[in-house]
Amino acid sequence: MAISQQVFLRDAMRRLNLTRDVFAARIGVKRRALDTWLLPEGSQEARAMPEVVARFVTEIVENSALMEKYAQSAQSGPLRDRIAAGGKHQLLSVDQFTRESVEELFRVADLMQPIARRRKVSRVLEGAVLGNLFFEASTRTRVSFGAAFCRLGGSVCDTTGFTFSSMAKGESIYDTSRVMGGYVDAMVIRHPEKGSVAEFAAATNIPVVNGGDGAGEHPSQALLDLYTILTEFSRLGKLLDGAHIVMAGDLKYGRTVHSLIKLLALYRGMKFTLVSPPGLEMPEYLLEQASRNGHVIEQTHDLATGLKGADVVYATRVQKERFAGENLEGYTADFQINRAIVDACCGPDTIVMHPLPRDSREGANDLSTDLNTDPRLAIFRQTDNGIPVRMAIFAVLMGVEGLVQHSLRDVTWAPPSHIGPDDSVFHGLD
Ligand code: NCD
């Protein structure tokens, strides 16, 4: 670095307009460590800041300059207007994003990290109520949307399944949506039919988020997946442009990969290898959409061939609940992503992802648990990222993202430094 570390850090804090405490939290280090990096060179207590921190600080400063540029540009207007669907502040499909707007959303997610990592609290959504309407099985999507809303100071009302909802009495989507709109300030909806969440959204003017519509889309999952890939690549010093992404499993009915391939196609020069058992290939319209802009797409039924040279391996569960006559003949025991195949086909910098849940029962052929202690397995870093990304989605749709930074207060409790016993060293909360 041409300038001294001390000047570099002071300049970054000034540009970001952050105190030492907030700056330390923002870059994910202890205040004590930051203090030692800020001491004049040659002083006994002074320490050199790790290279990865310097890179991260540069990135934050650049992004904040970008955010400022967006904010100043009268033409661009608030992010929620630029990603609006049908003139409404809703998130129904990743088609609403450009590369610029998705990265802008991620800068908001970065702002949420001190809250998601339980160092800070905020109440920018105090008084707001979220309606979480899940007409299909869910654990992490429903709870993480709820937790994200609560961590911004809002509260949550839930309904799960058809049995206990008035839809079991024949109520239309229109009526349900209009009624709920009178009770809550935003809705997240998961429904087994493709296109149904858009129907809900058409019947209300409050923000609606698609939490998964059948085999259609799962935009918030794809956003947190992309955020995870970018975060992991930044740690590994890799660029997403030109990366080799392998998607494996049920690509026909897996909605997470439907949304993710569209988002990744916003980048340049990608190579996609799509590995599925026969009959469960990625739908044609998505292949066409992704092959625009010169991306390379290869398809295979053979896992070992497909995994070679992957930067990211994204495994998915077989969506048996959506099968319409397909059988599982091609889904043999050698279709499992496990330590042996990852060691044989992938490098030390490959990351292994999965939207979860994975089927861990005997003979299920899903992502194996034998990778649990392998740092390449990013599945829990991925689920953890669900919170800041979903907080960012709410903050943007409700127009409060500009209030977050100055609303932060210290938490009163002390979380464990690592949430999971197998978490990698770089994955701690501290
Ligand atoms: C996925 C879903 O529901 O589409 N899960 C999730 O939301 N993380 C994937 C799946 O169910 O296999």
TrEMBL record:
Entry similarity comment: Belongs to the aspartate/ornithine carbamoyltransferase superfamily. ATCase family.
InterPro entries (UniProt xref): Asp/Orn_carbamoyltranf_P-bd (IPR006132), Asp/Orn_carbamoylTrfase (IPR006130), Asp/Orn_carbamoylTrfase_sf (IPR036901), Asp_carbamoyltransf (IPR002082), Asp_carbamoyltransf_Asp/Orn-bd (IPR006131)
What PROSITE patterns is this protein classified in? CARBAMOYLTRANSFERASE (PS00097)
Write down the chemical reaction(s) this protein catalyses: carbamoyl phosphate + L-aspartate = N-carbamoyl-L-aspartate + phosphate + H(+)
Tell me what organism the protein belongs to. Answer: Castellaniella hirudinis
General function of this protein: Catalyzes the condensation of carbamoyl phosphate and aspartate to form carbamoyl aspartate and inorganic phosphate, the committed step in the de novo pyrimidine nucleotide biosynthesis pathway.
Q: Which keywords does the record carry?
A: Pyrimidine biosynthesis, Transferase
The enzyme's first-digit EC class, named in words, is transferase
Q: Which domain of life is it from?
A: Bacteria
Q: What GO MF terms are annotated?
A: aspartate carbamoyltransferase activity
Specify the Aspartate/ornithine carbamoyltransferase Asp/Orn-binding domain's residue ranges: 242-396
Q: By what name is this protein known?
A: Aspartate carbamoyltransferase
**Record-listed E.C. numbers:** 2.1.3.2
* Taxonomic lineage from the root: Bacteria, Pseudomonadati, Pseudomonadota, Betaproteobacteria, Burkholderiales
Provide the Aspartate/ornithine carbamoyltransferase carbamoyl-P binding domain boundaries. Answer: 90-229
Pathway(s) this gene product operates in, as recorded in its UniProt entry: Pyrimidine metabolism; UMP biosynthesis via de novo pathway; (S)-dihydroorotate from bicarbonate: step 2/3
